[in-house]
Amino acid sequence: METHPSLLLLLVLSCFATASYAHNVHLSALNQSLIVSTSTTPGEVLKAGVDQVNISWSYNQSFPAGTDTNYTTVEVKLCYAPVSQAGRDDRKTDDALDNDKTCPFDITEAPYKRSNNSFVWTVPQDTPTATYFVRIFAIYNKHEKGYGQSTDALKTTSLFQVDGIVSEEKEVSAALPAFGGSFGYGYAWLLMLFLVYI
Ligand SMILES: *[C@@H]1O[C@H](CO)[C@@H](O)[C@H](O)[C@H]1NC(C)=O
Ligand SMILES: *[C@@H]1O[C@H](CO)[C@@H](O)[C@H](O)[C@H]1NC(C)=O
Ligand SMILES: *[C@@H]1O[C@H](CO)[C@@H](O)[C@H](O)[C@H]1NC(C)=O
Ligand SMILES: *[C@@H]1O[C@H](CO)[C@@H](O)[C@H](O)[C@H]1NC(C)=O
Ligand SMILES: *[C@@H]1O[C@H](CO)[C@@H](O)[C@H](O)[C@H]1NC(C)=O
């Protein structure tokens, strides 16, 4: 059986359409509709692999009713504070979330609930020594719709430090998955389609 070329074209186009739609989100376009806090005390230094942080979040009820009706899940991420981004292109902030390298570490994912959310997180052993905060994205249909963070807009308050044991070399490979993202899957898809076609 032969694959009809127009069907193939349609598949390829739909693949790109999905990729560009899912990946054009800017942080500044999201509602900062979540309130996020951590149990850390100012200046606290957490030992990687040992210490725990209790992360709590809820919906900011002063947002217009309905803002969160479509939220389905939350993604909790560990993010570099500006002091640990200085001189590091591989940690650079970009308002376009595709290119943003502020929050390369996934902490957890959970179903969206308006209130009473918390997660006790043990700082993983391979966490680089740096200063951090936590950001949480509210997701609908794989798209970020809202967010909140455990620090202020300038990212100076309520930061915490991690004392890691990772060498620079290991640290780079730990950060790599952040560059791939699901855009990489789009290309994998394309490649597969071509292989099937040949
Ligand atoms: C985490 O923090 C929340 C909110 O302050 C609290 O309700 C919860 O009991 C805490 N969990 C643990 C295990 O300490
Ligand atoms: C909740 O949202 C309101 C309205 O946008 C804002 O003024 C307020 O600072 C927010 N509260 C918190 C704790 O983020
Ligand atoms: C929720 O999703 C529906 C269907 O996609 C859309 O029409 C509506 O505008 C969304 N509401 C909000 C607040 O984003
Ligand atoms: C932000 O909230 C407003 C008001 O509820 C809503 O109209 C808008 O669609 C929301 N934006 C996003 C990106 O969900
Ligand atoms: C919050 O969660 C805790 C533990 O899951 C539960 O015992 C408590 O009843 C909840 N409180 C509210 C207000 O939902």
Description:
It comes from Lactuca sativa. This is High-affinity nitrate transporter. Residues 1-22 form the signal peptide. Strands 2, 4, 5, 7, 8 and 9 form a six-stranded mixed beta sheet that branches. Strands 1-3-6 form a three-stranded antiparallel beta sheet, with no helix packed on it. Helix 1 packs antiparallel against helix 3. It has a single domain (26-171), classed as Macroglobulin (MG2) domain (Immunoglobulin-like), CATH 2.60.40. The chain is of the alpha+beta class and 198 residues long. It contains three helices and nine strands, in the order αβββββββββαα. It has helices spanning 5-22, 168-175, 177-197; strands spanning 34-38, 45-47, 52-59, 73-80, 105-111, 117-122, 130-140, 143-149, 160-163. Bound molecules: 2-acetamido-2-deoxy-beta-D-glucopyranose (NAG) (5 copies). Residues 66-67, 69-70 line the site of one 2-acetamido-2-deoxy-beta-D-glucopyranose (NAG).
Small molecules in complex: 2-acetamido-2-deoxy-beta-D-glucopyranose
Structural class comes to: alpha+beta
Reported for the largest beta sheet, the result is: 6 strands, mixed
Runs in which pLDDT lies below 50 for 5 or more consecutive residues are 7-21, 178-187
What do the pLDDT scores average to?
A: 83
The number of helical runs is 3
Protein name: High-affinity nitrate transporter
Function: Involved in nitrate transport.
InterPro entries: Transptr_NO3_Nar2
GO molecular function, one term: nitrate transmembrane transporter activity
